[in-house]
Design goal:
This protein is of the alpha/beta class. It contains eleven helices and 16 strands. The chain has helices at 3-9, 11-23, 32-43, 103-118, 143-148, 206-217, 219-224, 265-282, 302-316, 333-336, 372-389; strands at 48-54, 57-63, 66-76, 125-133, 157-164, 172-174, 177-180, 182-191, 195-196, 231-239, 246-247, 250-259, 286-293, 298-300, 321-323, 341-348. The radius of gyration is 24 Å and the shape is elongated.
Length: 391
């Protein structure tokens, strides 16, 4: 099978699908029309068994003509609550919602790959499950719902791919090991005797306690984390009284911790609790710390990453496949990795809007459609070649 020729032949249809998805974006948990469109497109293909494992998720199963492993390929389908600042003919038709992260491109590429392979089951070894997952952008993620529905039961390997604004079309990013961090939401509630700002000696100054905690929490990464390992702790909100002459009875701090190395999670979370409780006690305040873990660490299996790398290098050339850098962003692909091994890679779609490169989640985010056909080509090459490369 000539993956490059097929991807080029289908390029127009891939772009058409991407633009259709871009015009009608839906936020996490509300991907009704998006999933209906995907379901309809896949159901029209011979050799695919299509199901709805959750209200807005879609899975299509292709059984190949040769024996082999069960492999899953996953993309995310949700958009963001962002007002698009663009005047293209295919700009978002849904006010306040935009595919500002490129999930429309992720979906269009995997949808095209599924259609192409459905016409050629003899080229496929084992079984492929095409997973179109909702709710990746929401806290907790939609992957857990798909996993609980059994979409990866019996799967030997799961693959994920995402468009990359920092990578040129026709190029790819891939790394062994950790790619995305674990994510914790932080809420610290400080309570004390409030009162008049002119008589602080009659009160417990919860604002001062909160400020002390914020400053002290910044010491965790500097003093408790190996400098060669990655973590970040950030307080992003400080809610207190709106009046200028009142010391409030309650102050609420909010923030996030991002931890790339799993062995550091207990250290960081324990220190957050200890520091907050210790400072509050020293000032006579009460303190409640709430830590909610969202995504876990995304960790590429070494053998799987090497297999994908060798396929991409053979298909596109060694110079087109670069080592990726880990990020302290979250990705609920990690949920699938609690059940099976996997590999997550990036597909270049870098482009400029008015001479400026805008990042993911920006209202002017620009996805260079020239990269989509290379993404389809990559999916075809990987999904038909992985069984022979993986040990």
């Amino acid at each position: 099978m000539n993956c490059a020729e097929l991807a080029l032949e289908w390029e127009g249809r891939t772009i058409e699908a991407r633009r259709r998805l871009h015009m009608y974006p839906e936020v996490s948990g509300q991907e009704v029309h998006t999933s209906d469109y995907i379901y309809k497109e896949l159901s029209a293909c011979a050799n695919l068994t299509v199901s709805r494992p959750c209200p807005t998720g879609v899975v299509a199963v292709l059984r190949g003509g040769k024996p082999g492993r069960v492999c899953a390929a996953r993309c995310d389908i949700d958009a963001l609550p962002v007002e698009e600042a663009d005047d293209s003919p295919y700009r978002s038709r849904n006010p306040g919602v935009m595919h500002a992260c490129g999930h429309d491109g992720n979906t269009a590429m995997l949808l095209t790959a599924a259609k192409i392979l459905a016409e050629r089951p003899e080229e496929v070894s084992g079984q492929i499950r095409f997973i179109f997952q909702p709710c990746e952008e929401a806290s907790g993620g939609g992957a857990s719902e798909m996993v609980e529905a059994g979409v990866v039961d019996g799967v030997d390997l799961i693959l994920g791919a995402h468009v990359a604004a920092e990578c040129e079309p026709g190029c790819f990013l891939l790394r062994n090991g950790a790619t995305h961090s674990a994510v914790y939401e932080i809420e610290i509630v400080i309570r004390g005797k409030g009162g008049h700002g002119g008589f602080p000696h009659q009160c417990v100054d919860t604002v001062m306690v909160g400020a002390e905690i914020v400053c002290a929490l910044n010491s965790i990464v500097a003093k408790n984390v190996d400098p060669c390992k990655s973590a970040v702790m950030t307080i992003t909100s400080f809610q207190a009284s709106q009046a200028k002459n009142i010391i409030p009875e309650e102050v609420v701090l909010g923030g996030t911790a991002r931890i790339l190395n799993e062995e550091l999670e207990e250290t960081v979370t324990t220190r957050i609790r200890q520091i907050a409780a210790g400072i509050a006690q020293a000032y006579g305040a009460a303190c409640e710390v709430r830590l909610e873990k969202g995504y876990g660490v995304v960790y590429n299996d070494g053998a799987a990453a090497e297999a994908v790398r060798s396929i991409l290098q053979e298909e596109f050339g060694q110079e087109k496949v670069s080592a990726d850098e880990p990020v302290l962003g979250g990705e609920d692909f990690s949920c699938y990795l609690t059940r099976t091994r996997g590999c997550y890679f990036k597909i270049g779609t870098r482009g400029l809007r008015d001479g400026v490169e805008y990042p993911h989640h920006h209202c002017r985010f620009f996805l260079n459609e020239a990269g989509l056909r290379y993404g389809v080509e990559a999916w075809l090459a990987v999904l038909t070649g992985i069984n022979d490369r993986l040990h």
